[in-house]
Design a protein that fits this description.
By secondary structure, the protein is of the alpha/beta class. It has a seven-stranded parallel beta sheet with strand order 3-2-1-4-5-6-7, sandwiched between helices. The longest helix is centred in the middle third of the chain and has 29 residues. The chain starts with 6 loop residues before the first strand and ends in an 8-residue tail after the last strand.
Length: about 240
């Protein structure tokens, strides 16, 4: 149980890493809302769902307004929502590149900006951006995704400097290969090959990422800002 109960909003929280983060924050005693474009078929009783399309400013504003009306001001934001359109650059269209950057990078900017007013008023806030080991290492077939995740580092560090005086911390979590539906679609052979490159010799679990997010959201992480926490089994060491 957390020392202080706060309102947390997790974008892309209907499944995978986002849902694991939402459940962990709820277990820690927070009031948690999840945002996604479509409502999950099954929803935990402890979570509030709101419709949220991070590529649309009006949708983001409406989602926050709904959370504020039902739970209160948001003081913990986990900007997790994102997309992939993997392919080699020679086959990648401008739209393939721009749509991924818009969702993953500009979408994070939209949600963070909307959350800051209530955090500034409270003089307390936690912003956690979901990056990726790919953002520092790169990956063939993921130039758009890697660029969007690398961009989050510059965004996060700039925000950390800009809002530190208001006691708002901004950090990033950078997962490696994590057992999710998205990873599972790659097939067992591909997953085994990826795991072979991880020093710990296995893929991670969504709960591993959620644990790092929960720590960064806590009072105990109040002197950490502008940092990137890898949750990758050692894959990105030196990256």
């Amino acid at each position: 149980m957390t020392d202080v109960q706060r309102v947390a909003f997790v974008t892309g929280g209907s499944r995978g890493i986002g849902l694991a983060c939402a459940r962990r924050l709820a277990a820690d005693g927070h009031d948690v809302a999840i945002g996604s474009r479509s409502k999950p078929e099954e929803l935990d009783d402890s979570l509030l769902w709101v419709e949220c399309d991070i590529t649309d400013h009006a949708s983001v504003d409406a989602a926050f307004s709904s959370v504020e009306e039902q739970l209160g001001p948001v003081h913990i934001l986990v900007a997790n929502a994102g997309i992939t359109r993997d392919m080699l650059v020679l086959r990648m269209t401008d739209d393939d590149f721009e749509s991924v950057v818009d969702a993953n990078l500009t979408g994070a900017f939209r949600t963070v900006k909307r959350s800051l007013k209530s955090m500034m008023k409270a003089r307390w806030g936690r912003v956690i951006l979901m990056s990726s080991v790919v953002g520092s290492l790169g990956q063939a077939g993921q130039a758009n995704y890697a660029a969007s995740k690398a961009g989050l580092t510059g965004l996060g560090r700039s925000l950390a400097r800009e809002f530190a005086s208001r006691n708002i911390t901004v950090n990033l979590v950078a997962p490696g290969p994590i057992e999710t539906d998205m990873l599972g679609a790659l097939g067992e052979d591909t997953i085994a090959a990826m795991a072979a490159h991880v020093p710990l010799g296995r893929v991670g679990q969504a709960d591993d990422v959620a644990a790092a997010v929960a720590f960064l959201a806590s009072d105990g992480a109040g002197y950490i800002t502008g940092a990137t926490i890898p949750v990758d089994g050692g894959l990105g060491m030196g990256g």
